[in-house]
Amino acid sequence: MAISVNHQVQPEKWLIAPHVIRLETSIIREILKISSQPGVISFAGGLPAPELFPLEDLKRICGEVIEKYGPAGFQYALSRGVPVFVKLLAERATVSGCPTEPENVLVTAGAQQAIELVARAFIDPGDYVIVENPTYVGALQAFNYYQARYVPIEMDKEGMRVEQVETSIRKYNPKLIYTVSNFQNPTGITMSEERRQALVDVAVKYNIPLVDDNPYREIRFAGTPATQLKAIGGDAVIELHTFSKTVAPGLRIGWINGPKPILSQFEKVKQCTDLHTNSFSQYVIYEFVKQGLMDPQIEKIKANYLEKRNTMLHSLEKYFPAGVTWTNPEGGLFLWLELPKGISAKEMLPRAIERGVAYVYGSPFFAGGGGENTMRLGFSNPSVSDIVEGVKRLGTLLKEKV
Ligand SMILES: Cc1ncc(COP(=O)(O)O)c(C=O)c1O
């Protein structure tokens, strides 16, 4: 006879670690939940355009992977990644200007896991991390878990104000410098060439790892390509990559390109986390790249996002009141807006959702506080016609406020 003891169980009293209780759920994920109501046009996510997922190719390749690699696609695999895939990643990085060997590579479950591994490997409670202000909120969440403290560095249109970095290093002795150098999330800003060189110089001078979270580099639809920090800094730079923005985020494949001794440390950490990254997904992306599908895929994405960015810029000009400014990104997924001082983008969000449009307010991206009058608009996911309509709805609301 089964005995039910359920009435005695009180999981709410179990002793969850205090630093986990203190963690906040991702604000973006919360906003995504609210904004996925029917009728709401959402600029909130950093979601790729679903119409660009290469579904037919992926369908065919999934079958081919099963035929070609058999059980290997479903077996436990090496923590570093499936060797043929690792080799391919190293070759592609080398061709892109960053000499890389397979021993420099660790395949991860997206760039988010790569950030997490970096945080786990480097951060003890109370350690300082230099970040851009604002910066990617998912990185702050990962660093927060390990109880990092922040040295937020101001940004302007050339990216992080690198001249502030050296004094900050002297003062706080940080463990890491974290940057999103290309088409930054959330601002869409790309670091200038001079700043890149200066940032590498300062990282090398003080021997502090420079983490370049680089998910958007390939999605450049205007302007001239920037030199990669990794190409300038070599082993001074830990570069994080992902296939989420080029193939599909659901496959959860990213990778780290870093110095060999550090990669061995990451490998141990990776083993504690999940043993290894999904082998089937690695074979699928391997075949996708090998079959020459990657470059045409990126071209399709660039054309689509360029049109969407242009539509958003034109609509902002047309429907937004004076006093609001925005960035003009040459790639990536996001545009960043500053509203007149005194308007809180957070307070305005419920009203915007009532009017059928959603965005992410900017304050959570600021490790140093502030940014109440800022917001991020993602242009990759909505259709062109929804971009026009959504910006119109938001502009109408804003005109009532200014
Ligand atoms: C700067 C940055 N890093 C990392 C990620 C996470 O990407 P992934 O899907 O590869 O985990 C994102 C996703 O939006 C991002 O913008």
Structural account:
It is a single chain. With 402 residues, the protein is α/β, with parallel strands linked by helices. It folds into 2 domains: 20-53 and 296-401, Aspartate Aminotransferase, domain 1, CATH 3.90.1150.10; 55-290, 3-Layer(aba) Sandwich (Aspartate Aminotransferase, domain 2). Helix content is 43%, strand content 14%. The chain is built from 14 helices and 14 strands. Strands 2-9-8-7-6-3-4-5 form an 8-stranded mixed sheet, with helices on both faces. A 4-stranded antiparallel sheet has the order 10-11-14-13. Helix 3 crosses helix 11 (279-290) and helix 5 runs parallel beside helix 6 (137-145). The protein is globular. It binds pyridoxal-5'-phosphate.
How would you concisely characterize the structure shown here?
With 402 residues, this protein is an alpha/beta fold. It is 43% helix and 14% strand. The model has no long low-confidence stretch (mean pLDDT 95).
CATH class of the largest domain: Alpha Beta
Share in helix: 40-55%
Report the average pLDDT across residues: 95
| CATH architecture classification name of the largest domain | 3-Layer(aba) Sandwich
- Alpha-carbon distance between the two ends: 70 Å
Please give the order of strands in the largest beta sheet: 2-9-8-7-6-3-4-5
Main β sheet profile: 8 strands, mixed
The CATH homologous superfamily of the largest domain is called: Type I PLP-dependent aspartate aminotransferase-like (Major domain)
Shape designation = globular
Strand content: 5-15%
Poorly predicted regions: none
Which ions and ligands are bound to the chains? pyridoxal-5'-phosphate
**Radius of gyration using CA atoms only:** 22 Å
Q: Looking at CATH, which topology of the largest domain would you report?
A: Aspartate Aminotransferase, domain 2
Q: Would you report the number of β strands?
A: 14
The ordered string of helix (H) and strand (E) elements is HHEHHEHEHEEHEHEHEEHHHEEHEEEH
Structural class category: alpha/beta
User: How many helices?
Assistant: 14
Work out the count of structural domains. 2
